[in-house]
Amino acid sequence: MSEMIQAPRRGGVEALGDLTSRGPARKRRAIIERAIQAVLFACAAISILTTFGIVATLLGETIQFLRQVSIVEFLTGTRWTPLFASKHFGVLPLVNGTIAVAFVAMVVALPVGILTAIFLSEYAPTRFRSVLKPILEVLAGIPTVVYGYFALLFITPILREIFPQTGIFNVASAGIVMGFMILPMMASISEDALRAVPSGLREGAYALGATKYQTVTRVVVPGALSGILAAVILSISRAIGETMIVAIAAGLQPKMGFNLLQSMETMTAYIVQVSLGDTPQDTIEFQTIFAVGTLLFLMTFVMNVVSDWLVRRFREAYE
Amino acid sequence: MIGLQIGKTVFRAPESERPEAPEEIILSTRNLSFWYGEKQALDGISMEIPVRQVTAIIGPSGCGKSTYLRCFNRMNELIPGSNLDGSVEYRGRDINDGRVDPVSIRRQIGMVFQKPNPFPKSIYDNIVFGAKVNGMSADMDELVETSLRKAALWDEVKNDLKQSGLALSGGQQQRLCIARALAVEPEVILMDEPCSALDPIATTRIEDLIRTLRETYTIVIVTHNMQQAARVSDKTAFFTVGESGGGELVEFDETHRLFTTPSDPRTEAYITGRFG
Lengths: 319, 276
Known about the structure:
CATH architecture of the domain at 2-6 and 24-117 and 187-275 in chain B: 3-Layer(aba) Sandwich
Mean pLDDT of chain A: 89
Distance between the termini of chain B: 19 Å
Radius of gyration of chain A: 28 Å
Strand content of chain B: 25-35%
Order of helices and strands of chain B: HEEEHEEHEHHHHEHEHEEHH
Largest interface: A-B, 21 and 26 residues
CATH superfamily of the domain at 2-6 and 24-117 and 187-275 in chain B: P-loop containing nucleotide triphosphate hydrolases
Strand content of chain A: under 5%
Helix content of chain B: 25-40%
Shape of chain A: flat
Order of helices and strands of chain A: HHHHHHHHHHHHH
CATH architecture of the largest domain in chain A: Orthogonal Bundle
Number of helices of chain B: 11
Shape of chain B: globular
CATH class of the domain at 2-6 and 24-117 and 187-275 in chain B: Alpha Beta
Low-confidence stretches of chain B: 1-8, 13-17
CATH topology of the largest domain in chain A: MetI-like fold
Largest sheet of chain B: 6 strands, mixed
Number of domains of chain A: 2
Number of strands of chain B: 10
Oligomer: heterodimer
Structural class of chain A: mainly alpha
Distance between the termini of chain A: 53 Å
Protein backbone atom coordinates (compact mmCIF):
# COMPACT_ATOMS: atom_id res chain seq x y z
CA MET A 1 0.00 0.00 0.00
CA SER A 2 2.68 2.43 1.07
CA GLU A 3 4.83 1.41 -1.87
CA MET A 4 1.99 2.23 -4.21
CA ILE A 5 1.61 5.67 -2.75
CA GLN A 6 5.30 6.42 -2.69
CA ALA A 7 6.00 5.39 -6.22
CA PRO A 8 4.22 8.24 -7.94
CA ARG A 9 5.52 10.66 -5.35
CA ARG A 10 9.11 9.83 -6.22
CA GLY A 11 8.27 10.28 -9.88
CA GLY A 12 6.68 13.60 -9.04
CA VAL A 13 9.83 14.91 -7.43
CA GLU A 14 11.86 13.99 -10.47
CA ALA A 15 9.39 15.75 -12.74
CA LEU A 16 9.52 18.83 -10.54
CA GLY A 17 13.28 18.80 -10.83
CA ASP A 18 12.85 19.20 -14.57
CA LEU A 19 10.49 22.13 -14.07
CA THR A 20 12.69 24.23 -11.78
CA SER A 21 15.13 26.38 -13.70
CA ARG A 22 18.05 28.17 -12.17
CA GLY A 23 20.68 30.49 -13.48
CA PRO A 24 20.71 33.61 -15.65
CA ALA A 25 17.54 32.91 -17.66
CA ARG A 26 15.38 32.80 -14.58
CA LYS A 27 16.99 35.88 -13.06
CA ARG A 28 16.50 37.82 -16.27
CA ARG A 29 12.82 36.96 -16.37
CA ALA A 30 12.40 38.11 -12.79
CA ILE A 31 14.08 41.44 -13.57
CA ILE A 32 11.89 42.01 -16.62
CA GLU A 33 8.79 41.23 -14.59
CA ARG A 34 9.81 43.70 -11.93
CA ALA A 35 10.69 46.37 -14.48
CA ILE A 36 7.33 46.05 -16.19
CA GLN A 37 5.59 46.34 -12.86
CA ALA A 38 7.62 49.44 -12.01
CA VAL A 39 6.83 51.14 -15.33
CA LEU A 40 3.13 50.42 -14.96
CA PHE A 41 3.17 51.75 -11.42
CA ALA A 42 4.97 54.91 -12.52
CA CYS A 43 2.34 55.56 -15.21
CA ALA A 44 -0.45 55.11 -12.71
CA ALA A 45 1.38 57.33 -10.23
CA ILE A 46 1.75 60.17 -12.75
CA SER A 47 -1.97 60.81 -12.96
CA ILE A 48 -2.39 60.56 -9.20
CA LEU A 49 0.53 62.88 -8.53
CA THR A 50 -0.70 65.35 -11.11
CA THR A 51 -4.09 65.45 -9.45
CA PHE A 52 -2.52 66.00 -6.06
CA GLY A 53 -0.22 68.66 -7.52
CA ILE A 54 -3.10 70.55 -9.08
CA VAL A 55 -5.21 70.39 -5.94
CA ALA A 56 -2.24 71.47 -3.81
CA THR A 57 -1.50 74.46 -6.06
CA LEU A 58 -5.14 75.47 -6.15
CA LEU A 59 -5.50 75.22 -2.39
CA GLY A 60 -2.16 76.94 -1.64
CA GLU A 61 -2.97 80.01 -3.72
CA THR A 62 -6.56 79.99 -2.51
CA ILE A 63 -5.36 80.09 1.10
CA GLN A 64 -3.11 83.03 0.24
CA PHE A 65 -6.14 84.72 -1.28
CA LEU A 66 -8.39 84.00 1.70
CA ARG A 67 -5.83 85.59 4.04
CA GLN A 68 -6.60 88.91 2.40
CA VAL A 69 -10.27 88.51 1.53
CA SER A 70 -12.75 87.01 3.97
CA ILE A 71 -14.45 83.86 2.75
CA VAL A 72 -17.81 85.44 3.55
CA GLU A 73 -17.12 88.37 1.25
CA PHE A 74 -15.83 86.03 -1.44
CA LEU A 75 -18.85 83.74 -1.37
CA THR A 76 -21.61 86.29 -0.74
CA GLY A 77 -20.39 89.54 -2.35
CA THR A 78 -22.24 90.64 -5.45
CA ARG A 79 -19.53 92.77 -7.01
CA TRP A 80 -16.51 91.28 -8.74
CA THR A 81 -13.94 93.95 -9.65
CA PRO A 82 -10.51 92.61 -8.69
CA LEU A 83 -8.87 94.17 -11.73
CA PHE A 84 -10.14 97.68 -11.01
CA ALA A 85 -8.84 100.35 -8.70
CA SER A 86 -11.76 99.87 -6.34
CA LYS A 87 -11.49 96.13 -5.70
CA HIS A 88 -14.45 93.96 -4.79
CA PHE A 89 -14.13 90.22 -4.42
CA GLY A 90 -17.69 88.93 -4.44
CA VAL A 91 -17.68 85.87 -6.68
CA LEU A 92 -21.46 85.67 -7.07
CA PRO A 93 -21.60 87.52 -10.43
CA LEU A 94 -19.27 84.90 -11.91
CA VAL A 95 -21.33 82.09 -10.36
CA ASN A 96 -24.45 83.82 -11.67
CA GLY A 97 -22.99 83.96 -15.18
CA THR A 98 -21.85 80.35 -15.02
CA ILE A 99 -25.24 79.11 -13.88
CA ALA A 100 -27.05 81.26 -16.46
CA VAL A 101 -25.06 79.78 -19.35
CA ALA A 102 -25.37 76.25 -17.95
CA PHE A 103 -29.10 76.81 -17.54
CA VAL A 104 -29.56 77.79 -21.19
CA ALA A 105 -27.38 74.85 -22.23
CA MET A 106 -29.50 72.44 -20.22
CA VAL A 107 -32.76 73.90 -21.57
CA VAL A 108 -31.46 72.82 -24.98
CA ALA A 109 -29.63 69.61 -24.09
CA LEU A 110 -31.99 68.08 -21.52
CA PRO A 111 -35.19 67.63 -23.52
CA VAL A 112 -33.50 67.05 -26.87
CA GLY A 113 -30.94 64.71 -25.32
CA ILE A 114 -33.43 62.58 -23.42
CA LEU A 115 -35.87 62.40 -26.32
CA THR A 116 -33.01 61.47 -28.65
CA ALA A 117 -31.96 58.75 -26.23
CA ILE A 118 -35.52 57.40 -26.01
CA PHE A 119 -35.78 57.42 -29.77
CA LEU A 120 -32.45 55.66 -30.24
CA SER A 121 -33.07 53.08 -27.54
CA GLU A 122 -36.75 52.31 -28.04
CA TYR A 123 -37.97 53.42 -31.44
CA ALA A 124 -35.18 53.72 -33.99
CA PRO A 125 -34.84 50.84 -36.43
CA THR A 126 -31.39 49.27 -36.20
CA ARG A 127 -30.31 50.69 -39.53
CA PHE A 128 -31.33 54.24 -38.64
CA ARG A 129 -29.63 53.93 -35.30
CA SER A 130 -26.39 52.85 -36.90
CA VAL A 131 -26.43 56.11 -38.89
CA LEU A 132 -27.56 58.50 -36.15
CA LYS A 133 -25.11 57.30 -33.49
CA PRO A 134 -21.95 58.15 -35.51
CA ILE A 135 -23.41 61.54 -36.43
CA LEU A 136 -23.91 62.29 -32.74
CA GLU A 137 -20.34 61.23 -32.11
CA VAL A 138 -19.10 63.63 -34.79
CA LEU A 139 -21.00 66.37 -32.95
CA ALA A 140 -19.06 65.40 -29.83
CA GLY A 141 -15.77 65.57 -31.69
CA ILE A 142 -16.06 69.19 -32.91
CA PRO A 143 -13.47 71.38 -31.14
CA THR A 144 -15.11 73.77 -28.70
CA VAL A 145 -13.40 76.75 -30.30
CA VAL A 146 -15.43 76.02 -33.43
CA TYR A 147 -18.60 75.98 -31.34
CA GLY A 148 -17.53 79.32 -29.88
CA TYR A 149 -17.24 80.97 -33.27
CA PHE A 150 -20.44 79.29 -34.39
CA ALA A 151 -22.19 80.96 -31.45
CA LEU A 152 -20.67 84.37 -32.08
CA LEU A 153 -20.97 84.46 -35.87
CA PHE A 154 -24.09 82.43 -36.52
CA ILE A 155 -26.39 82.17 -33.50
CA THR A 156 -25.86 85.69 -32.16
CA PRO A 157 -26.86 87.40 -35.47
CA ILE A 158 -30.02 85.29 -35.56
CA LEU A 159 -30.84 86.24 -31.96
CA ARG A 160 -30.22 89.91 -32.77
CA GLU A 161 -32.59 89.59 -35.69
CA ILE A 162 -35.33 88.30 -33.37
CA PHE A 163 -34.47 90.37 -30.26
CA PRO A 164 -32.79 93.61 -31.40
CA GLN A 165 -31.65 94.43 -27.85
CA THR A 166 -29.36 91.38 -27.82
CA GLY A 167 -25.72 92.17 -27.09
CA ILE A 168 -22.87 91.14 -29.40
CA PHE A 169 -21.72 88.96 -26.54
CA ASN A 170 -24.60 87.29 -24.76
CA VAL A 171 -25.47 84.39 -22.53
CA ALA A 172 -28.18 82.97 -24.77
CA SER A 173 -26.10 82.23 -27.84
CA ALA A 174 -23.23 80.73 -25.81
CA GLY A 175 -25.71 78.63 -23.86
CA ILE A 176 -27.60 77.38 -26.92
CA VAL A 177 -24.41 76.29 -28.65
CA MET A 178 -23.11 74.74 -25.46
CA GLY A 179 -26.37 72.79 -25.33
CA PHE A 180 -25.59 71.34 -28.76
CA MET A 181 -22.11 70.50 -27.59
CA ILE A 182 -23.40 68.62 -24.53
CA LEU A 183 -26.20 66.93 -26.44
CA PRO A 184 -24.21 63.87 -27.61
CA MET A 185 -23.01 63.10 -24.10
CA MET A 186 -26.46 63.60 -22.64
CA ALA A 187 -28.05 61.38 -25.29
CA SER A 188 -25.37 58.73 -25.12
CA ILE A 189 -25.38 58.25 -21.33
CA SER A 190 -29.18 58.36 -21.18
CA GLU A 191 -29.39 55.82 -23.97
CA ASP A 192 -27.05 53.49 -22.08
CA ALA A 193 -29.30 53.83 -19.04
CA LEU A 194 -32.43 53.08 -21.07
CA ARG A 195 -30.88 50.09 -22.78
CA ALA A 196 -29.78 48.73 -19.41
CA VAL A 197 -33.42 48.36 -18.40
CA PRO A 198 -34.00 44.60 -18.75
CA SER A 199 -36.08 43.66 -21.79
CA GLY A 200 -38.15 41.45 -19.47
CA LEU A 201 -39.67 44.60 -17.99
CA ARG A 202 -40.73 45.80 -21.43
CA GLU A 203 -42.27 42.41 -22.19
CA GLY A 204 -44.01 42.45 -18.82
CA ALA A 205 -45.61 45.77 -19.65
CA TYR A 206 -46.65 44.71 -23.15
CA ALA A 207 -48.10 41.49 -21.78
CA LEU A 208 -50.37 43.54 -19.51
CA GLY A 209 -51.76 45.37 -22.50
CA ALA A 210 -49.59 48.48 -22.36
CA THR A 211 -48.97 50.34 -25.59
CA LYS A 212 -45.43 51.13 -26.65
CA TYR A 213 -45.76 54.71 -25.44
CA GLN A 214 -47.07 53.55 -22.05
CA THR A 215 -44.29 51.00 -21.79
CA VAL A 216 -41.66 53.64 -22.48
CA THR A 217 -43.07 56.34 -20.23
CA ARG A 218 -44.24 54.20 -17.32
CA VAL A 219 -41.69 51.43 -17.18
CA VAL A 220 -38.54 52.08 -19.20
CA VAL A 221 -37.91 55.75 -18.39
CA PRO A 222 -38.72 55.40 -14.66
CA GLY A 223 -36.50 52.32 -14.60
CA ALA A 224 -33.64 54.29 -16.10
CA LEU A 225 -34.27 57.41 -14.06
CA SER A 226 -31.16 57.33 -11.90
CA GLY A 227 -29.00 56.75 -14.97
CA ILE A 228 -30.67 59.63 -16.77
CA LEU A 229 -30.21 61.80 -13.69
CA ALA A 230 -26.53 60.93 -13.71
CA ALA A 231 -26.38 62.03 -17.35
CA VAL A 232 -28.02 65.33 -16.42
CA ILE A 233 -25.58 66.01 -13.61
CA LEU A 234 -22.56 65.12 -15.72
CA SER A 235 -23.89 67.42 -18.42
CA ILE A 236 -24.35 70.30 -15.97
CA SER A 237 -20.88 69.66 -14.67
CA ARG A 238 -19.54 69.78 -18.22
CA ALA A 239 -21.47 72.98 -18.92
CA ILE A 240 -20.06 74.65 -15.83
CA GLY A 241 -16.51 73.70 -16.71
CA GLU A 242 -16.74 74.59 -20.41
CA THR A 243 -14.47 77.51 -21.22
CA MET A 244 -13.89 78.23 -24.88
CA ILE A 245 -17.46 78.85 -25.97
CA VAL A 246 -18.19 81.27 -23.15
CA ALA A 247 -14.85 83.03 -23.49
CA ILE A 248 -15.61 83.70 -27.15
CA ALA A 249 -19.35 84.30 -27.15
CA ALA A 250 -20.60 85.26 -23.67
CA GLY A 251 -18.39 88.27 -23.00
CA LEU A 252 -16.36 89.38 -20.02
CA GLN A 253 -18.67 91.48 -17.89
CA PRO A 254 -19.34 90.10 -14.41
CA LYS A 255 -23.01 90.92 -13.95
CA MET A 256 -25.76 89.71 -11.68
CA GLY A 257 -29.22 89.11 -13.08
CA PHE A 258 -31.32 86.98 -15.34
CA ASN A 259 -31.17 88.86 -18.64
CA LEU A 260 -29.90 86.16 -20.93
CA LEU A 261 -29.57 88.52 -23.88
CA GLN A 262 -26.80 90.50 -22.23
CA SER A 263 -23.17 89.68 -21.70
CA MET A 264 -22.13 87.89 -18.52
CA GLU A 265 -18.81 86.52 -17.40
CA THR A 266 -18.51 82.95 -16.25
CA MET A 267 -15.97 81.60 -13.79
CA THR A 268 -14.05 79.89 -16.56
CA ALA A 269 -14.05 82.94 -18.79
CA TYR A 270 -12.68 85.04 -15.94
CA ILE A 271 -9.84 82.59 -15.40
CA VAL A 272 -8.96 82.77 -19.10
CA GLN A 273 -9.13 86.55 -19.04
CA VAL A 274 -6.65 86.86 -16.18
CA SER A 275 -4.38 84.03 -17.32
CA LEU A 276 -3.97 85.58 -20.75
CA GLY A 277 -3.51 89.10 -19.40
CA ASP A 278 -0.43 90.68 -17.90
CA THR A 279 -1.45 90.30 -14.28
CA PRO A 280 1.75 89.90 -12.26
CA GLN A 281 2.14 86.79 -10.10
CA ASP A 282 1.82 86.90 -6.31
CA THR A 283 -0.67 89.74 -6.47
CA ILE A 284 -4.18 89.46 -5.15
CA GLU A 285 -5.51 89.78 -8.72
CA PHE A 286 -3.50 86.75 -9.72
CA GLN A 287 -4.62 84.74 -6.71
CA THR A 288 -8.28 85.37 -7.53
CA ILE A 289 -8.12 82.90 -10.41
CA PHE A 290 -7.03 80.17 -8.04
CA ALA A 291 -9.84 80.96 -5.65
CA VAL A 292 -12.33 80.89 -8.53
CA GLY A 293 -10.67 77.73 -9.85
CA THR A 294 -11.00 76.00 -6.48
CA LEU A 295 -14.66 76.90 -6.27
CA LEU A 296 -15.20 75.61 -9.80
CA PHE A 297 -13.32 72.42 -8.99
CA LEU A 298 -15.41 71.84 -5.89
CA MET A 299 -18.65 72.39 -7.81
CA THR A 300 -17.81 69.94 -10.58
CA PHE A 301 -16.25 67.49 -8.13
CA VAL A 302 -19.37 67.30 -6.01
CA MET A 303 -21.52 66.83 -9.10
CA ASN A 304 -19.32 64.06 -10.46
CA VAL A 305 -19.41 62.27 -7.13
CA VAL A 306 -23.18 62.53 -7.00
CA SER A 307 -23.57 61.25 -10.54
CA ASP A 308 -21.15 58.41 -9.86
CA TRP A 309 -23.22 57.43 -6.84
CA LEU A 310 -26.40 57.53 -8.91
CA VAL A 311 -24.92 55.34 -11.61
CA ARG A 312 -23.75 52.79 -9.04
CA ARG A 313 -27.12 52.77 -7.33
CA PHE A 314 -28.74 52.25 -10.70
CA ARG A 315 -26.53 49.28 -11.56
CA GLU A 316 -27.28 47.61 -8.24
CA ALA A 317 -30.95 47.65 -9.05
CA TYR A 318 -30.75 45.19 -11.95
CA GLU A 319 -27.60 43.11 -11.70
CA MET B 1 -38.96 14.92 -0.16
CA ILE B 2 -39.35 16.58 -3.53
CA GLY B 3 -36.86 14.15 -5.01
CA LEU B 4 -38.71 11.17 -3.63
CA GLN B 5 -41.89 12.15 -5.33
CA ILE B 6 -40.27 12.00 -8.73
CA GLY B 7 -41.14 8.79 -10.50
CA LYS B 8 -44.40 8.15 -8.73
CA THR B 9 -46.34 11.19 -9.67
CA VAL B 10 -50.00 10.91 -8.85
CA PHE B 11 -52.16 11.77 -11.78
CA ARG B 12 -55.52 13.37 -11.39
CA ALA B 13 -58.70 11.49 -12.09
CA PRO B 14 -58.80 10.37 -15.71
CA GLU B 15 -61.10 12.07 -18.13
CA SER B 16 -63.59 9.17 -18.10
CA GLU B 17 -64.73 10.12 -14.61
CA ARG B 18 -65.73 13.54 -15.77
CA PRO B 19 -68.85 14.44 -17.74
CA GLU B 20 -68.22 13.59 -21.37
CA ALA B 21 -69.36 16.91 -22.77
CA PRO B 22 -67.51 18.13 -25.89
CA GLU B 23 -64.70 20.36 -24.80
CA GLU B 24 -65.11 24.05 -25.34
CA ILE B 25 -62.09 25.29 -27.29
CA ILE B 26 -60.72 28.71 -26.40
CA LEU B 27 -57.44 28.88 -28.30
CA SER B 28 -56.41 27.08 -31.43
CA THR B 29 -53.73 27.17 -34.07
CA ARG B 30 -53.99 25.88 -37.58
CA ASN B 31 -50.86 24.91 -39.46
CA LEU B 32 -48.87 27.52 -37.54
CA SER B 33 -45.29 28.10 -38.67
CA PHE B 34 -42.96 30.74 -37.37
CA TRP B 35 -39.58 32.13 -38.37
CA TYR B 36 -37.03 34.35 -36.64
CA GLY B 37 -35.45 35.84 -39.76
CA GLU B 38 -34.22 32.83 -41.74
CA LYS B 39 -34.43 30.43 -38.83
CA GLN B 40 -37.61 28.40 -38.60
CA ALA B 41 -38.90 28.02 -35.06
CA LEU B 42 -42.28 26.33 -35.59
CA ASP B 43 -43.39 24.02 -38.35
CA GLY B 44 -47.08 23.59 -39.06
CA ILE B 45 -48.56 23.22 -35.60
CA SER B 46 -52.29 22.58 -35.29
CA MET B 47 -53.67 22.28 -31.81
CA GLU B 48 -56.81 23.11 -29.84
CA ILE B 49 -56.65 24.29 -26.27
CA PRO B 50 -59.71 23.67 -24.08
CA VAL B 51 -61.19 26.29 -21.81
CA ARG B 52 -60.60 26.25 -18.03
CA GLN B 53 -58.04 23.50 -18.10
CA VAL B 54 -54.31 23.45 -17.71
CA THR B 55 -52.53 22.60 -20.93
CA ALA B 56 -48.83 21.86 -20.66
CA ILE B 57 -46.32 22.01 -23.47
CA ILE B 58 -43.18 19.96 -23.01
CA GLY B 59 -40.25 19.15 -25.23
CA PRO B 60 -36.49 19.47 -25.57
CA SER B 61 -34.70 22.83 -25.72
CA GLY B 62 -35.14 24.65 -29.01
CA CYS B 63 -38.36 22.83 -29.92
CA GLY B 64 -40.21 26.15 -30.12
CA LYS B 65 -42.51 25.68 -27.15
CA SER B 66 -41.93 29.21 -25.82
CA THR B 67 -42.28 30.63 -29.32
CA TYR B 68 -45.57 28.78 -29.68
CA LEU B 69 -46.84 30.17 -26.38
CA ARG B 70 -45.89 33.70 -27.37
CA CYS B 71 -47.95 33.44 -30.57
CA PHE B 72 -51.11 33.47 -28.46
CA ASN B 73 -50.64 37.04 -27.22
CA ARG B 74 -48.68 38.30 -30.20
CA MET B 75 -45.54 38.86 -28.13
CA ASN B 76 -43.42 37.54 -30.98
CA GLU B 77 -44.26 40.44 -33.22
CA LEU B 78 -42.12 42.65 -30.96
CA ILE B 79 -39.10 40.82 -32.35
CA PRO B 80 -37.93 42.46 -35.57
CA GLY B 81 -37.65 40.18 -38.58
CA SER B 82 -40.02 37.54 -37.27
CA ASN B 83 -42.58 35.95 -39.53
CA LEU B 84 -45.74 33.95 -39.01
CA ASP B 85 -47.75 31.66 -41.26
CA GLY B 86 -50.99 29.84 -40.53
CA SER B 87 -53.58 31.04 -38.05
CA VAL B 88 -53.99 31.58 -34.32
CA GLU B 89 -57.56 31.80 -33.14
CA TYR B 90 -58.95 33.04 -29.87
CA ARG B 91 -62.59 32.06 -29.46
CA GLY B 92 -62.80 31.51 -33.19
CA ARG B 93 -61.34 34.87 -34.12
CA ASP B 94 -58.02 35.14 -35.97
CA ILE B 95 -55.90 37.28 -33.66
CA ASN B 96 -53.45 38.18 -36.42
CA ASP B 97 -56.23 39.79 -38.42
CA GLY B 98 -55.17 43.35 -39.26
CA ARG B 99 -58.18 44.77 -37.42
CA VAL B 100 -57.38 43.05 -34.13
CA ASP B 101 -55.58 45.24 -31.62
CA PRO B 102 -52.70 43.38 -29.96
CA VAL B 103 -53.25 45.47 -26.84
CA SER B 104 -56.79 44.12 -26.39
CA ILE B 105 -55.56 40.57 -27.06
CA ARG B 106 -52.98 40.92 -24.30
CA ARG B 107 -55.63 42.12 -21.93
CA GLN B 108 -57.62 38.94 -22.48
CA ILE B 109 -54.57 36.69 -22.58
CA GLY B 110 -52.13 37.43 -19.79
CA MET B 111 -48.60 36.13 -19.49
CA VAL B 112 -46.14 35.09 -16.79
CA PHE B 113 -42.51 34.89 -17.80
CA GLN B 114 -39.64 32.55 -17.09
CA LYS B 115 -37.73 35.06 -15.03
CA PRO B 116 -39.86 36.98 -12.51
CA ASN B 117 -40.02 40.51 -13.90
CA PRO B 118 -41.75 42.79 -11.41
CA PHE B 119 -41.45 46.46 -12.31
CA PRO B 120 -39.06 48.43 -10.11
CA LYS B 121 -42.10 49.92 -8.40
CA SER B 122 -44.03 49.16 -5.22
CA ILE B 123 -46.08 45.97 -4.91
CA TYR B 124 -49.20 48.11 -5.08
CA ASP B 125 -48.10 49.90 -8.26
CA ASN B 126 -47.12 46.60 -9.87
CA ILE B 127 -50.66 45.32 -9.42
CA VAL B 128 -52.48 48.43 -10.58
CA PHE B 129 -50.20 48.94 -13.60
CA GLY B 130 -52.31 46.86 -15.96
CA ALA B 131 -55.57 48.36 -14.74
CA LYS B 132 -54.19 51.86 -15.22
CA VAL B 133 -52.82 51.39 -18.72
CA ASN B 134 -56.08 49.77 -19.73
CA GLY B 135 -58.10 52.62 -18.26
CA MET B 136 -60.03 50.31 -15.94
CA SER B 137 -62.03 52.23 -13.36
CA ALA B 138 -61.93 49.77 -10.50
CA ASP B 139 -61.42 50.42 -6.81
CA MET B 140 -57.65 50.08 -6.88
CA ASP B 141 -57.24 49.10 -3.21
CA GLU B 142 -59.76 46.34 -3.64
CA LEU B 143 -58.17 45.22 -6.90
CA VAL B 144 -54.78 44.97 -5.20
CA GLU B 145 -56.17 42.88 -2.37
CA THR B 146 -58.21 40.47 -4.50
CA SER B 147 -55.39 40.00 -7.00
CA LEU B 148 -52.84 39.31 -4.29
CA ARG B 149 -55.26 36.93 -2.56
CA LYS B 150 -55.85 35.02 -5.80
CA ALA B 151 -52.10 34.69 -6.20
CA ALA B 152 -51.71 33.52 -2.57
CA LEU B 153 -49.39 36.39 -1.77
CA TRP B 154 -51.67 38.68 0.24
CA ASP B 155 -50.84 37.38 3.70
CA GLU B 156 -47.12 37.75 3.13
CA VAL B 157 -47.18 41.33 1.86
CA LYS B 158 -50.37 42.93 3.18
CA ASN B 159 -48.53 44.96 5.79
CA ASP B 160 -46.14 46.58 3.37
CA LEU B 161 -47.68 47.14 -0.03
CA LYS B 162 -45.45 50.16 -0.55
CA GLN B 163 -42.24 48.16 -0.56
CA SER B 164 -40.54 47.56 -3.89
CA GLY B 165 -41.52 44.45 -5.81
CA LEU B 166 -37.81 43.81 -6.31
CA ALA B 167 -37.36 43.42 -2.54
CA LEU B 168 -39.38 40.19 -2.53
CA SER B 169 -37.90 36.69 -2.85
CA GLY B 170 -37.87 35.02 -6.27
CA GLY B 171 -40.96 32.92 -5.55
CA GLN B 172 -42.83 35.90 -4.15
CA GLN B 173 -41.81 37.97 -7.18
CA GLN B 174 -43.25 35.30 -9.46
CA ARG B 175 -46.51 35.24 -7.50
CA LEU B 176 -46.55 39.04 -7.71
CA CYS B 177 -46.22 38.71 -11.49
CA ILE B 178 -49.12 36.25 -11.49
CA ALA B 179 -51.18 38.64 -9.33
CA ARG B 180 -50.30 41.44 -11.73
CA ALA B 181 -51.51 39.35 -14.66
CA LEU B 182 -54.74 38.42 -12.82
CA ALA B 183 -55.46 42.06 -12.02
CA VAL B 184 -56.40 42.85 -15.62
CA GLU B 185 -58.97 40.04 -15.43
CA PRO B 186 -57.79 37.94 -18.35
CA GLU B 187 -59.45 34.76 -19.53
CA VAL B 188 -56.24 32.94 -20.35
CA ILE B 189 -52.88 32.94 -18.60
CA LEU B 190 -49.81 31.89 -20.54
CA MET B 191 -46.95 30.68 -18.36
CA ASP B 192 -43.50 30.40 -19.89
CA GLU B 193 -41.51 28.09 -17.60
CA PRO B 194 -42.73 30.01 -14.56
CA CYS B 195 -40.74 27.95 -12.05
CA SER B 196 -37.44 27.49 -13.83
CA ALA B 197 -35.79 30.26 -11.80
CA LEU B 198 -37.28 29.14 -8.48
CA ASP B 199 -36.29 26.76 -5.70
CA PRO B 200 -38.36 23.60 -5.05
CA ILE B 201 -40.46 25.07 -2.26
CA ALA B 202 -41.36 28.18 -4.25
CA THR B 203 -42.09 25.87 -7.18
CA THR B 204 -44.54 23.83 -5.09
CA ARG B 205 -46.39 26.99 -4.12
CA ILE B 206 -46.69 28.12 -7.73
CA GLU B 207 -47.94 24.67 -8.74
CA ASP B 208 -50.56 24.73 -5.97
CA LEU B 209 -51.58 28.12 -7.25
CA ILE B 210 -51.88 26.87 -10.82
CA ARG B 211 -54.23 24.11 -9.65
CA THR B 212 -56.40 26.68 -7.86
CA LEU B 213 -56.44 29.06 -10.80
CA ARG B 214 -57.64 26.42 -13.24
CA GLU B 215 -61.13 26.69 -11.73
CA THR B 216 -61.45 30.17 -13.21
CA TYR B 217 -58.83 30.53 -15.91
CA THR B 218 -57.49 28.72 -18.91
CA ILE B 219 -53.80 28.10 -18.37
CA VAL B 220 -51.21 27.18 -20.94
CA ILE B 221 -47.87 26.35 -19.37
CA VAL B 222 -44.55 25.68 -21.05
CA THR B 223 -42.23 23.64 -18.89
CA HIS B 224 -38.90 21.88 -19.06
CA ASN B 225 -39.94 19.74 -16.15
CA MET B 226 -42.03 16.73 -17.16
CA GLN B 227 -42.91 16.04 -13.55
CA GLN B 228 -44.36 19.49 -13.34
CA ALA B 229 -46.44 18.94 -16.46
CA ALA B 230 -47.69 15.68 -14.95
CA ARG B 231 -48.50 17.33 -11.64
CA VAL B 232 -50.39 20.39 -12.83
CA SER B 233 -51.84 19.79 -16.26
CA ASP B 234 -54.97 18.21 -17.70
CA LYS B 235 -53.61 17.92 -21.21
CA THR B 236 -50.05 17.80 -22.44
CA ALA B 237 -48.52 18.51 -25.81
CA PHE B 238 -45.12 17.12 -26.71
CA PHE B 239 -43.05 19.16 -29.16
CA THR B 240 -39.82 18.18 -30.80
CA VAL B 241 -37.40 19.66 -33.31
CA GLY B 242 -38.46 18.59 -36.79
CA GLU B 243 -36.43 18.15 -39.96
CA SER B 244 -36.97 21.80 -40.94
CA GLY B 245 -35.25 22.83 -37.70
CA GLY B 246 -38.55 24.21 -36.48
CA GLY B 247 -40.62 22.78 -33.65
CA GLU B 248 -43.26 20.18 -34.47
CA LEU B 249 -46.16 18.84 -32.47
CA VAL B 250 -45.62 15.12 -31.91
CA GLU B 251 -48.49 14.27 -29.65
CA PHE B 252 -51.26 16.06 -27.78
CA ASP B 253 -53.38 14.13 -25.35
CA GLU B 254 -54.76 13.86 -21.85
CA THR B 255 -51.80 14.19 -19.53
CA HIS B 256 -52.26 10.82 -17.85
CA ARG B 257 -52.54 9.11 -21.22
CA LEU B 258 -49.53 10.87 -22.71
CA PHE B 259 -47.35 9.97 -19.77
CA THR B 260 -48.53 6.38 -19.33
CA THR B 261 -49.41 5.18 -22.82
CA PRO B 262 -47.91 7.54 -25.36
CA SER B 263 -48.90 6.67 -28.90
CA ASP B 264 -45.79 8.02 -30.59
CA PRO B 265 -42.43 6.29 -30.03
CA ARG B 266 -40.69 9.69 -29.90
CA THR B 267 -42.83 10.73 -26.96
CA GLU B 268 -42.07 7.51 -25.20
CA ALA B 269 -38.34 7.89 -25.84
CA TYR B 270 -38.38 11.40 -24.46
CA ILE B 271 -40.40 10.54 -21.39
CA THR B 272 -38.55 7.37 -20.50
CA GLY B 273 -35.19 8.91 -21.33
CA ARG B 274 -35.79 11.60 -18.82
CA PHE B 275 -37.30 9.31 -16.23
CA GLY B 276 -34.31 6.98 -16.53
